[in-house]
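Input record (Table S2, row 158):
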Amino acid sequence: MKKILKYVLIVLVAGLVIIQFINRPEKINDPVTENDIIENLQLNTEMAGLLKAACYDCHSNQPRYPWYANIAPVSWTIAEHIEHGRDELNFSEWGTYSARRRDHKLEEVVEEVEEGHMPLPNYVKMHREADISEEQLEMLKAWVQQERAKIAQEQEGE
Ligand code: HEC
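Output record (heme C complex):
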């Protein structure tokens, strides 16, 4: 019995070592442009800080990578989150979105955060700074409301 356990352990460890060489996802770190929501809308420090701490790791072109992002299979999961997250919403490309899209995304931002779907709960466990407080949620909602009102005005003018 002891022998079997030993073999299982060896196979597991060998497997872990081998997968490190299979696929090393490329890290993303593109320069910040004027299309970034923080630049584009000249967000204040609090709003910028909130988005950066809680959302930018999956919804921007400048994710921060923890040390374990170098280790498969965690590295694959992280890369997948970043890929899907940016497909849905990329704050670094905010300035390229149509008014309609911006409005829709802002609506979703509040929904997702209020329902506790975003930031992803597993991520929050590992990143305490991404845990959005009641006050931060209120600030986010007030900002979204104000921003959506601006977009509505913009659309009327079109
Ligand atoms: C750990 C990665 C991660 C973080 C951090 C994160 N998201 Fe996401 N987000 C995703 C992924 C992956 C998707 C796409 C799949 C899904 O909807 O679950 C997504 C989807 C979304 C969507 C689109 C939902 C839809 O169904 O259309 C919105 C809006 C969103 N996130 C907002 C946010 C906001 C706001 C924050 C910060 C408060 C945030 N996310 C933080 C990974 C993340």
